[in-house]
Amino acid sequence: MLTYTVKRIGLAIMVLLIVMSAMYAMVFLVPGDPASLALGPRATPELKAELTARMGLDQPLTTQILNFFSNALRGDLGYDVWSKRPVLDQILEVLPNTLFLGILSLGWAIVLGIVLGCLAVVWRGTAIDTLLGVLSVSMIAVPPFVIALYSLLIFAVWLNWLPAIGAGKPGDWSSQLAAALLPAFAIGITWVGYLARLVRASMLEVMGANYIRTARAFGLSEPRIVLRCALRVAIIPTIAILAVGFGSILSSAVFVETVFSRPGVGSLITSAVAKRNYPLVMGTVLFMTTFYLFVVTAADLLMAWLDPRVRDVFRS
Amino acid sequence: MSSAADPLPRKTLPLPASLRRLMADRMGAAGAFIVLFLLAIAIIAPWIAPYDPLKINVKAKLLAPSWEHWAGTDHLGRDTLSRLILGTRNALWIALTATGLAGVIGMILGLIAGYGPRWIDGILVLLLDSLSSLPMIMFALAVITVLGPGTQTLMLVIVLVSIPGYARLIRAQVLTLKNADFIQAERVMGASLPRILLVHLLPNVVGPLVIVLSMDVPVVIMLEAGLSYLNLGVKPPEPSWGNMLYDGYTSLRQQPSLVIAAGIPLILATLGFTFLGEGLRDALDPKLQKRLP
């Protein structure tokens, strides 16, 4: 377990170093220097010189990358080109909104996904199973931001039940929840379909096992077997998938947050990309990538702890 | 993995039989019809569009659907239906070429990693793992920031984020086949490296790749529309379902018909390609695992 832990964490750190160096170097591969790209047509020589010095662009590339990493380690992700505020402050300001949205989306998706998956297993082979199958595939296929736009039109504009923009008043939980309902619906729906399929597939695998046959021989009812015996085992792969799913939730959040003009990491980085605000984009990318790698690595370690077979990956 | 289980490696896909199986699967057949329909529209787009999709007519702005404009008009008075039809062409062109290109590059890298020397394999695997362990959207946004938005950047981003999956798939299969008897026999008989790779290995590993490629097309269509919605993909005034949805969003309260109309082909396309991909997988190789959304 110790060897696995050390190697897994080492791999994550190496990946992070490679990716960030590549990304930082990429800025220099394209024609035109970042300062004038960021400033655009408004660039005057003085402004450019000031920005170049502030971003440390007058130093050699290797020094810049080293500086970037040593600053990042100390929690300094640089400063916004326009507002001159620290990048980290801006991220931490909106991160709770995105996390709240992500947890809410996954929360309802897990509950409904598992219920639908169980229903499909109970009625396996029937028309209901087929219908649920088509429904799950459709939920996976339809882009979350189109669902966001349609639900915005129906529930916020036509019916006026829920707010169309923003994240609610700070400190007012009910308004924050109301503002998060539609975005969470749009993001979660993909996961309902995905989890329903996953739960169905892993449960069908378990249903053939001997102990299920024993349970049936003892006269337990089918729903009881599904809920008490099969679900417990089938839930493990579901947990494993959720950590990896963080990346795709983040991706949906980028689009959905923009649709609802909701402050969050997604809308923060999109507006920064549009303005070519390098420090803000690179800082957010570094922050979210680190966060993502942390989640995935932690999930892998958890799985290795639960299931010793996983630990053999590095041995071959 | 899948092909290795077959004692007799097959050279080509048994198409007629698998096509019959695809048509027997109602979902797969529906997907195939939707995809053929969209492809037909994309090909004949310029001839069936009732109006010039770029022609601005401010007097006729934000019209509701009518006999003259079946899907209404946008904030500049451009005909929505014509723009949707040309948007179909853009969406399919970008999705199919980018996915195809990524498939070819991924295949080459996979062959090199699987069949080449250990050290090249090590380096390639590390690079591919680094690329695929990034949250896709973060990587895409970083590349767009550096290169500036546009159709070419969009295609590059799609190709880059798709390569690792395909290369790994091919590599894994090549590794299992590399020491199979028929490959060793070829080597003993003195077959050249290109002959072993292209004539003997490739036909045996390309089947699963085709399935995975077809299942990735809807994801790419979604990414194109999403980035175009954020104004980071296809540049206006060039029509794309994504930037039309954005135009519709800005005039949502005055005229909701644009958002409704622009969402329909996007949903149709992602559903059609997903159904087709699922159907193809079931018909050709049921053992291949479903990937993450």
From TrEMBL, chain A:
UniProt cross-references to InterPro entries, sorted A to Z: BPD_transp_1_N, MetI-like, MetI-like_sf
Keyword Transmembrane helix: yes
Cross-referenced CDD domains: TM_PBP2
Membrane-topology descriptor: Multi-pass membrane protein
Transmembrane parts of this sequence: 9-30, 99-123, 130-157, 177-196, 233-260, 280-306
Record key words, sorted: Cell membrane, Membrane, Transmembrane, Transmembrane helix, Transport
Compartmental location: Cell membrane
UniProt similarity note: Belongs to the binding-protein-dependent transport system permease family.
Protein name, entry field: ABC transporter permease
Protein source organism: Pseudogemmobacter lacusdianii
From TrEMBL, chain B:
InterPro entries xref list: BP-dependent_transpt_permease, MetI-like, MetI-like_sf, OppC_N
Keyword Cell membrane: yes
Similarity annotation: Belongs to the binding-protein-dependent transport system permease family.
Membrane topology: Multi-pass membrane protein
Classification via Gene3D superfamilies: MetI-like
Protein name (database record): ABC transporter permease
TM stretches of this protein: 29-49, 91-112, 124-147, 153-170, 197-223, 258-277
Compartments in which it is found: Cell membrane
Lineage: Bacteria, Pseudomonadati, Pseudomonadota, Alphaproteobacteria, Rhodobacterales
Pfam families for the chain: BPD_transp_1 (PF00528), OppC_N (PF12911)
Keywords, sorted A to Z: Cell membrane, Membrane, Peptide transport, Protein transport, Transmembrane, Transmembrane helix, Transport
Superkingdom in the source lineage: Bacteria
Domain ABC transmembrane type-1: 88-277
CDD domains in the cross-refs: TM_PBP2
